[in-house]
Each structure stands twice: as structure tokens, then as C-alpha cells.
Amino acid sequence: MSPLVAPGVTVASLQRPGALDPVDHRILVCHALGLSRTGLITHSERVLSGDEAARLSALLQRRLDGEPIAYIVGKREFYGLDFEVSPAVLIPRPETELLVELALERLPPQGRVLDMGTGSGAIAVALAHTRPDAVVTALDVSPAALAVAQRNAAANDVTVQFLHSDWFSAVDAATFDLIVSNPPYIASGDRHLAEGDLRFEPAGALTDHADGLSALRRIVDGAPARLAPGGWLLMEHGYDQSAAVQALLAAQGYTHVQSWHDLAGIARVTGGRAGLR
Description:
Organism: Pseudoduganella chitinolytica
Binding site for substrate: 182-185
CATH topology of the largest domain: Rossmann fold
CATH superfamily of the largest domain: Vaccinia Virus protein VP39
Shape: elongated
Radius of gyration: 21 Å
Domain Methyltransferase small: 96-190
Strand content: 15-25%
Strand order of the largest sheet: 5-4-3-6-7-9-8
Number of strands: 9
Number of helices: 10
GO biological process, one term: methylation
Distance between the termini: 68 Å
Structural class: alpha/beta
Number of domains: 2
Binding site for S-adenosyl-L-methionine: 117-121, 140, 167, 182
Order of helices and strands: HHHHEEHEHEHEEHHEHEE
Helix content: 25-40%
């Protein structure tokens, strides 16, 4: 197969493969050549070496093969912060910023918050960065994901306590003012798992290998014993799951049960408050 980019061409003359999004093309050119967006203009007459052309060709081919751009460049922005990402973690998505905003509105001064299934640490790190007074704990069952999350906390200069835990197993008797989670909620066999970026992301972070509600049930059932009186539980879920999640919360005695919509108008987060004990 001939390379997509030939050595000796200039930056200005780089051609985008027809099937590739122009923004993706720009990101990959910048990444391969170590240039900023401005650098693409100021270095427009730079001539690519053989190594640079081969490196860029390889990156372009990976994207044409469907690999997510975030995995190729190894990072993604979330809530105004840069996060390392790898195939060990889900790629942070803009719609999850709604969960962060709702959490910040409900987090009291010096509040204690638990992020369940933290993955890259995006939610926990965003909360800790915005509210340095908060005591933030984050857990995940994947050691590889926790390693990524710990590096993201360090890179963004925040303090987060990370726990290796299968949901609540390592939490013991600790209580929190707020529990948040973006758990696996795609049902087994859902066609979306075989489409787009999801093909490359860790299956265990996407699907519960059941009806899509099993992880949400475990969180709903276990959270009351770990929430301070009046504390909130907030969970991201699938586009068609808000009614089911509201029913789970109501059945467990949560109050103020409601759902919130993302910018696309999709009911993205559902939550409720623990009862007074």
C-alpha cells in the first residue's frame, strides 16, 4: 500500500484523504509534526522528511480505519482540562459535563464526593479542580483505568483519593454528601457497541453485559448507606433510560427524583436525594 503522504511535500500542500473529517486531519497533522494550529500557518512552507511523512501516513490510516482520534493522539479535553486517554478508559464526552455541573450545584462547602467507575478520572478531576475545598474520592475496578486517572489528577494538579474497588466494596463505612457515576449502561447486544468509536473503547466500561440497568441498580441500592442525610446521587444513563432510573430511585425511597437534559435535549442524568435518617 502506498503511503498517504509522500516525503518532500510542504505543510501547506498536505492533502486530506477524502473520507477524513477536516478537523481530524488538522489535529493529526499537528500531532505528527509537533505543530500548534498557528504553527500550521507559520510553518506552511516546511518540507516533510521521510520519517514525518511515514508518521503522518500511519496516523491518518489509523483514523481511516475508525480508531478514535482521542486514542490516536492520546488526549481529550473535558470541562476545560486536558486528559490523557488510552484504550483502558472511555473517551470523555461533552454530554458528561452536565453531570459535573449538576454535582457542583449540589456540593456543599468542604463537601465529600464519590465518583464511581471513574475511568480516566474526568469527572473526579473536574470536580476537584473547580472545587479545591472538596474531598474527592474516585473508584474503579480496573487497575489500568486507575493508573490513567492518577496521572490525570497529577497533571491537573488536584488531589483525589483513588480506590481499587468493585463498586462499593472498598468504601467501607465512609459517607459522602454526593455520589456521582457514569456507569456501564448499554445493554448487551446493542448495535451501537459495534459502531463508531465504541468499537475501540473498553467493553466493560460501556455495557453491563445484561439489560443496561444492572450497574445502575447496584449504585441505587448501595448509595443510601453511604450518603449523608439529604445527600444526592446523580447518574448518567442512556437516552431511553430516564424513566427506568427514576423508578429505581423512587422504589428505594429517594426524594426529589428527577432527570436533566443535555444540550441535545436528551434526558442524560437522573438523580435523587437520600432520605433523612
